Amino acid sequence: MTKRKKSRLSDEPLLPSLVSPPLAAISSALIPGLGQVLARAVQRGLILLLSMATIIGLSVWRFILAAPRDTGFVDIVTKALRLSPFLIVLTILVIVLYVWTIVDAYRVAQDRSRPTVGLMFMILIVFFSLGWQIGEINPVELVRGADDAGPALTRVLWPWQRAIDYPEELITVYADVQIPCTDSPPVNDPPPEADEPYVHVDPTCGTLSEQGGELGSEPGSELTLTGYNFAPNKELGIVWRDSNRAEFRQRQEGEYVRLTPDETGFFEVDIIMPYRLLPPSAQQDVMIWKIGAEQVVSVGSPEPSTELKLALEKITETIFIGMMATFFGVILAIPVSFIAARNLMSVSPLTLGIYYLARTIMNIIRSIEPLIWAIIFVIVVGLGPFAGIMALTVHSIAALGKLYSESIESIDPGPIEAIQATGANWLQVVMFAVVPQVIPPFVSFTIYRWDINIRMSTIIGFVGGGGIGFLLAQWIRLLDYRAAGIAVWFIAITVAILDYTSAEIRARFV
Fold first, then answer.
1. Is 142 a domain residue?
2. Whether residues 355 and 269 fall in one domain
């Protein structure tokens, strides 16, 4: 008498396979998973069928993307394998999985109780390989890029040099230069009676360089600039002011002219008059330009930089965006949560319909990220923190409403039944049987959402929702990594403080 095998998951005997092992293998060779289905391992076969269909579809898509301009099958495969060698590994893994599926069908037809761990692990390996290829993961590029980005990352990690400013007192002393020379060139002003800085230029007229400056065929006239009574041993620069009152620095041999006065504050330097393209409205037959020396004569006490002040202002704004959004979200989510709790709304078909409607609306709102809501509200109310508060409030209502309602659904029904037995109405049942049980989880979820809103308020600033994220986005676009580093540090410090604060609140009230 033949004994029928029993399933590992139950005491029911396993039904015999509908096909022989060779036929099961052939069926899976034609349609992966079909052999397992015919061998009465339906769930196993369907998983293999769906997995193989997904893997083959994604693989074909990657091959077409790698060779988008080719049409022939052989041309696409050849070019794709040449341009993306990792597809070779993926192809080998898919072939191995396909053969394994055929062998598995043969063995399942013999013994349905065979384990599936190895085959499932192989499917995961293939999907991981697809993810590696689709994600264009390149560890070599990561290492190389990290080396190239090292200086920028260093400025982000330690940006505090940008957090302090030292006020500077800048002096600029000019002398007139006539362009071109005439019979009556300007005369240098006499030295001041006090020991104030002044400059002397010789000659006091000349001709500008032709286009191309020093590299052109016609360099400008050479002037000798002499300075007196400047701060000794402090570097200064040579500047010009053209007839259009625009200032620019003197360059010679590709470098800005910088020099240092001696112990008496004296310097002397030869200057070649530069090339300057002026608009027609500023061009005259005779122009008076000014040449001068610019020097920082003193440095004041350190004070917070503009970037530090802006970061402090915006991180405060960020905290209040998260706080206000959490407050409004809690106030509006509490009533929503009670109508979204199935155990409270199963009294009649009408209340059950309201329950399904509330759940559907919350699911739709939660499926849209706060970043998208921020873009929507920026269109509605304009740039600024109000758009960020509205975006986080809407998402918080849906998220907290779901969490609160699930807490209500998991409460002990005993107090509810006891209150109902006294003849209490729905509102009394909620007040005296539900609310006392849900206060601890409500507090916990509220603190958790507050933490999330603070973090999210730094991100929605990237799309104009206010807060420090707006500043961070601007500084990153300008490649001002030290200023961006200040913002990153403030975000990290704020999140750490709020995490500690929320932990303390949770320990006291939950």
1. no
2. no
pLDDT tens-digit readout, 414-446: 887 788 788 788 788 878 888 788 888 888 888
* 343, 491: one domain: yes
Question: Of 492, 481, 491, whose CA–CA distance to 159 is shortest?
Answer: 481
Task: Report DSSP letters for 292-308, one per residue.
Answer: EEEEEEEE---EE-HHH
What pLDDT, in 10s, does the model give residues 239-256? 999 888 888 888 888 788
- Are residues 275 and 243 in contact, defined by beta-carbon separation less than 8 angstroms? no
Cα separation, 427 vs 423, in Å, equals 12
**Total structural domains in the chain?**
3
Q: Which domain holds residue 206?
A: 168-299
Q: Which helix (H) or strand (E) holds 107?
A: helix 86-110
Residue 37's alpha-carbon distances to 51, 192, 252, 385, in angstroms, are: 14, 105, 84, 58
| Cα–Cα distance, 17 to 30 (Å, whole number) | 18
Look-up of token digits 């990352």: 153
Q: Point out the domain boundary residue: 120, 137, 154.
A: 137
Q: Say if 158 falls within a structural domain.
A: no
Q: 285 and 319 in one domain?
A: no
**Which amino acid is it at 130?**
L
- Flag whether 14 is in a domain: no
Q: Is 475 found in the same domain as 332?
A: yes
Considering the domain architecture, whether residues 93 and 120 belong to the same structural domain is answered as yes
Phi and psi at 228, nearest 5°, equal -135, 150
Give me the helices (H) in 161-208, please: none
Distance CA 327, CA 467 (A): 17
Q: Which helix (H) or strand (E) holds 60?
A: helix 42-66
d(CA 314, CA 322): 12
At 424, give phi and psi (nearest 5°).
-70, 150
Alpha-carbon span 118 to 44, nearest angstrom? 13
The pTM of this model reads 0.64
